[in-house]
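I'll show a record.
***
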Amino acid sequence: MTKSKTKIELQLKKKTNPELTQTIILAKKNPKWLPIAGILSGPRKKRRNVNLYELEKQGSGILVVCGKILSDGEISKKLKVSALSFSDKAKKKLLKANCELKTILEEIKQNKDAKGVIILK
């Protein structure tokens, strides 16, 4: 179940990271990205950090992680990954595997209809 825009707006007032607030505002404006805004506006400990071995198990499409990508594991296939942030080691491993990396903000701007998006919760 997604949060209401009013609830997201109230939680947004507590955020201090400018990139995070911009991402939430942009996601809130688009109904297809509203679940992402709901997750990002909540507490930080509710966001999911994902290791590379978990990404390896996923299928094709644009994988959106509402948290950080961590470097535990190896990646062998080419993926399109959007996340709030990436650890340095994870970024190196993903780039070595020719994966396409974007922040969630960039993905929302380029893919307004959320086509092919898989949200990892």
